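Researcher: Go.
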Amino acid sequence: MKRYGETLHRPYQCFMGKWEGLCKTFDIGGNFLESTHVHMDVYWVDEHTWHLHEYFKHLYQVGETTFHTDIKTEGKRCFASNDMLSLEGTELTPYNYVFTIDSDVTKTTVYNNHYFLDANTRRIITHKVRGGKSHCFQIQDFTRIVQP
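Model: Structure:
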């Protein structure tokens, strides 16, 4: 490996701030089902823990839902577990992250791919699986409205 110097990038830093978004849900045939507003507030609790506060006006097949999750980091990996979910994530590149979430709220396994299109625009592509079969797909588009 060549020496390129010290990194200026901290894993998960790009998530920090307040975000406003729209979640669009599609069936397994790709047909649009519904959309809902999503509000996110993401901030560092300590050097290795960040907090995700995520509010869905209407989470598909559930209704109004708020998640509060403390997420621990270990380098490029992250982990969380509470009464609503368990989560594992990995930074693939400084602006592309993947997460696997077992949700007790939706009774699904959620596969999320986060793509930062620029510093203040993020897209999440979600594949939800229930009982070993595809359940639905979601696309969430976010704009950061408050930066660190």
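Model: The chain is about 0% helix and 70% strand.
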